[in-house]
Every structure is written in C-alpha cells, then in structure tokens.
Write a structure and sequence with these properties.
The protein is mainly alpha-helical. Helix content is 58%, strand content 3%.
C-alpha cells in the first residue's frame, strides 16, 4: 500500500495527486467544511447588509451553517470499574459475565449514585472470584447472577423486577461459602431484600 503523504500510514484515497490515510482525509474534510462555513457566514452577512441598506426584510435566502464534523467518542461522565482477582483460575472464568458486572456497577454509580452498594458489590464479586473453595463453574454462575442482580439494582425502584431480585438473592446466598455470608447479608440489607 502507498503511504500517506502526510503521516506515513497506509493511504486509502488520493487528493490532488497526494495519497491520504483515513485520519488525514477526515482532517482534510473538516478543514473544507470549516472553509465552507466561513464563506456561507460571510455571504449571509453580506445579504443582511443588503437587507439593511434597502430597508427590506429577507432579500434572499440564507445559508444554513452546518456544524463541524467531529467524531463523537463518548458523552457524559465516564466511570471505570475494574474487578481485581488474583490466585484464581482466570482463564476459565467467563469474562463476559465479569464485563457485565462492571457495566452494572457503572450503571449503579451513574443512575443511582449509590456508591456504598457499588463498592459492596464490587468487593463481594472480587471475593467470589478469588474464593478457592468454589469451582470455576460455581464462581461463574454466581458472578452471572450478581450481574443480573446489579443490573436490576441500577434501575429506579418502581421499575425493578423485585421477585427476580429476591430469587437471585436466595440463589446466591445458597451458593456461597460461609466465609462470604456476612458480606452477602450486608448487601441484602442495602438492596432492601
């Protein structure tokens, strides 16, 4: 592939005989749009001056000015949650369930602002993932149930599926070893179940 004439990345398009990559082409298009907007604003200004000079309203149509093209990466607050677990068989754990739990923790933080519940669920999930007395499948099942429970907890109280939450609380409580019961009881109280 031909390298970009601006940055050396692989080129995908040619502009005026110059090979350009995707990033440089986006910048080029943004520059063209900025110039186009500037010319339209100038023409609108001149039309307004003509209207003012002859005393008529709306001598001609005005150009609509387009906002600049900018990629939207993320809007709103960003919170990062990472579950830490060590001395565990990480490769056998379903990381999809861990990711779902991280998303649910973020939703609890953003939607409810309940940092105590968020922290307690995070610590409990890490404890479950590190618990050696549980088989890998049991840990994975518990984390999956926790992620569903946390997703429900992130919702407003009136739209939660309370019966599902109670069933999950009972199932998780029956699955965890006695070393985690005290911690689990605190979470049940925070959830109001």
């Amino acid at each position: 592939m031909t390298p970009c004439s601006q940055c050396g990345k692989p080129a995908v398009v040619e502009v005026n005989g110059n090979p350009i990559c995707v990033d440089c082409y986006l910048k080029f298009q943004q520059a063209l749009q900025i110039r186009d907007n500037m010319l339209k604003e100038q023409e609108n200004f001149l039309l307004d001056q003509m209207d003012s000079a002859i005393g008529m309203d709306s001598f001609g149509p005005r150009h609509k000015i387009q906002p600049p093209v900018t990629p939207v990466i993320h809007q709103g607050p960003m919170n990062f949650h990472s579950l830490n677990f060590d001395r565990s068989v990480v490769g056998a754990i379903n990381t999809g369930n861990v990711k779902k739990m991280e998303v649910a923790l973020n939703d609890i933080h953003v939607n409810n602002g309940n940092t105590e519940l968020e922290k307690a669920l995070k610590e409990f999930t890490e404890a479950v993932l590190s618990e050696k007395s549980l088989a890998v499948e049991e840990r994975d099942d518990i984390v999956e149930q926790l992620s569903v429970l946390a997703t429900q907890a992130a919702r407003p109280k009136e739209s939660r599926l309370t019966s599902v939450m109670r069933a999950l609380v009972t199932s998780i409580g029956a699955s965890i070893p006695s070393a985690l019961i005290e911690h689990w009881d605190k979470i049940k109280i925070m959830l109001g179940l």
